[in-house]
Amino acid sequence: MDATVEKATFQLPRRMRGLQPTLIRQFFERALPDSINFGLGEPDLPTPQFLRDEAARIARDEQNGYTSHPGIPALRTKIAEQYPHLNLPMTGVVVTCGSQEAMTDAFMCCIDEGDDVLLPDPSFPAYDACTRIAQGNPVYYRMPADTEFAFDIEEFRSKITPKTKAAVVISPSNPTGKIMTANDYRQIAEALDGTGIWLLSDEIYSDLYFGERPHSASEFYERTIIISGLSKSLSMTGWRLGWAACADPEMINAIQVLHGFTTVCTSTITQKASLLAWSEEAEAAKQYAREVYAQRGKFLVDLFATELGLKATSPEGAFYTMLDVRSIGDDLEVAEKCLQNHVVTVPGVAFGQEAKGFLRISFCNTEEKMTEGVRRMKESLL
Ligand SMILES: Cc1ncc(COP(=O)(O)O)c(C=O)c1O
User: Fold this and answer.
1) Residue nearest (by alpha carbon) to ligand 1 atom 14
2) Is 205 exposed, middle or buried (0-12, 13-18, 19+ CB in 10 A)?
3) Phi first, then psi: what are they for 331, rounded to 5°?
């Protein structure tokens, strides 16, 4: 066989064709030196010292071989206890390499070629990518910009067809910072009742809320796969500790098998140290993060109003707000101008058509940096 001919005819498998890094990453990679980062959703608060010390001790003093594929039992038990309404055994939890792995695994385990998956518009771009990798079709339900991106049951219901295999919800939301209410979930459960549709609930920001603790979709709908982790609430993005939790043994077993073949297990050092993630110290650190981000969100939204005369959505959780730049111009162009003046933002269109005309702004920044960022935005935009 002539090797050059074989090479010339190679095509990526269909599931990989057209997949690109997200616009979030693309803008971040192009940041000029000394940029203010309103772009990435990465906590800037330090990882709590007691977790660092525990991980260092474990690395130094203990042998750290593989764990069982779904994770160490004590950790799975602690995670299962986060969902008392499900009365989950530890076997209902698989510990993964960040919630991103749990998400990809969950999509692969419930979507077949040609299945429709309902995704919020706007939402985290990985859902679209995961749907395509699983060879499903993304179908978007609008979270209308004119109601500050609130959930709309009629819109959701109108997208359900016999081809729908799964639907995604996220609360608190990336990119909008909005939280789904108990009533939203009740309405979803009612709409999905008897359809067999899987609900994939991204709860990675569930510990970062500024009012009442958000509900889990799993309180309302049985066929829910919870996707969550420690990255955001304890500033542990690089530690790679996430999980999938689900009351259905067949589904969680499938996720466990796929996880075993993709990553075997997440870092043993991370898993052991994460046993402290629900200690009193950890709960205090989460509470501190909530207070800091709530304060920063309010500070930034006020600053946008006073300095730029622009409205941003009021954050209810996570660390994002959506800045309405429709009076200035196209969001891609506005984000580009900001980038050239050393401010990284993300154009709304990165998250879906509904967010066109908005910038997603992350407030993982000190007030001093945010003030400088808004000053630079004013200089480049007004
Ligand atoms: C909505 C959402 N889900 C999941 C993730 C993945 O986070 P991790 O894999 O660090 O848990 C992110 C990270 O930015 C996110 O914003």
Assistant:
1) 41
2) buried
3) -65, -35
Atom nearest to 202 CA in ligand 1: 3
Tell me whether residue 60 is in a domain. no
The reply to whether ligand 1 has any atom less than 6 angstroms from the CB of 41 is yes
> How many domains does the chain divide into?
2
Q: Which residues pair with 225 in a beta bridge?
A: 200
CATH value at residue 362: 3.90.1150.10
The residue segments making up the domain with residue 359 are: 3-47+281-381
Question: Is 38 found in the same domain as 119?
Answer: no
Q: Based on the fold, state whether residues 295 and 364 are members of the same structural domain.
A: yes
Whether the CB of 346 sits within 6 Å of ligand 1: no
Closest residue by Cα to residue 92 from 329, 264, 254 = 254
To 10 degrees, what angle do helices 367-381 and 280-303 make? 30
What is the model's pLDDT at position 334?
97
Instruction: Tell whether ligand 1 has an atom less than 6 A from the beta carbon of residue 270.
Output: no
Dihedral (CA of 44, 47, 48, 53) sign: negative
**What's the token pair of residue 381?**
């935009």
If asked whether residues 317 and 240 sit together in one domain, one would say no
Q: Is 236 in the pocket of ligand 1 (CB under 6 A)?
A: no
Alpha-carbon distance 235 to 285, whole Å?
A: 10
**53 falls within a domain:** no
To the nearest whole number, what is the mean pLDDT of the chain?
Answer: 96
Quick one: pLDDT at residue 263? Answer: 98
Tokens of 173: 């939301």
Q: Is the CB of 120 under 6 A from ligand 1?
A: no
Would you say residue 309 lies in a domain?
yes
* pLDDT score recorded for residue 8: 78
Question: Who's near 85: CB < 8 A, 6+ residues apart?
Answer: 216, 218, 219
Query: Of the candidates 126, 154, 138, which has an alpha carbon nearest to the alpha carbon of residue 350?
Result: 126
| pLDDT value of position 21 | 87
pLDDT in the model for residue 379: 96
In which residue ranges of the chain is pLDDT below 70? Answer: 1-7
Looking at the whole model, is its pTM more than 0.90? yes
Predicted pLDDT of residue 6: 59
